[in-house]
Amino acid sequence: MVHIEDGNASKQFICSDIKKNIFLIGDSIRLGYCDATREALSNMAEVFFVPENCRNTQYVITCLNGWANMFSDRTCVDIVQFNCGHWDVARWCGGEFPLTSEDEYKKNLQIIIDMISVLFPNAKKIFATTTTMNPNGQKALNDRTNSDIERYNDIAKGVMIKNNIEINDLFAITKEWDSSYYGDYCHFTAEANRILGEYVANTLELYF
User: Using the 8-state DSSP alphabet, how is residue 169 labeled?
Assistant: First the structure.
């Protein structure tokens, strides 16, 4: 498990000289599909990711410099796909409001974009929207709804459009899935993660 905040981590990621180099940032949904994405792109790209839940926008902001310093050469990264949403939109422990307000979410996403631009100067940035909740209505301890998620995704899309950043709309894909794709209230089964990982791989390949 990697958890870095001070930016002094030893280098662990060594880029390929002959393949594309991709860095995936995201929450537990990304943890579910990243291995499938790496496998699908193995012949044409090196896919890197931190093996921890990247949680909410504030967490990404505080850890991003440390994660970037895991690369032996940050300038070799060709694509950074990032996501924050499930934690931000969740109403923690039954709270009245989402963890991150809409204004804070918009502000934090801009900070992340600006940081990625500095830390990975040659990378194309892609934002993955937050995926859907289980349509069977199963409740989570830290509850959220598809309407909450869609509202925050719309905020994110506005920020991305303003910054000319491509959008990988995973919400639109998973919105069509029934409850058989889910292992709990929002996480997917192994097979669904494979499907999602291959979809992400196919999307990223468009930008090679």
Answer: -
33, 200 Cβ separation under 8 angstroms? yes
pLDDT digit string, tens, across residues 53-107: 999 999 999 999 999 999 999 999 999 999 999 999 999 999 999 999 999 999 9
* High-pLDDT (> 90) share of the chain, %: 92
Q: What is the mean pLDDT of the chain?
A: 94
- Asked whether 81 and 200 are in contact (CB, 8 A), the reply is yes
Cα separation, 196 vs 173, in Å, equals 9
The rounded Cα 32 to chain-centroid distance in angstroms is 11
**Nearest to residue 133, comparing CAs of 90, 83, 99, 81?**
90
Domain definitions of the chain by residue range: 20-205
- CB atoms under 10 Å from CB of 121, counted, come to 10
Using only the alpha carbons of the chain, give its radius of gyration: 16
Sign, CA dihedral 186-189-195-201, equals positive
97, 91 Cβ separation under 8 angstroms: yes
- Identify the H or E element spanning 205: helix 190-205
pLDDT tens-digit readout, 182-205: 999 999 999 999 999 999 999 999
Fold of 20-205: Rossmann fold (3.40.50)
More confident site: 31 or 9: 31
d(CA 63, CA 199): 27
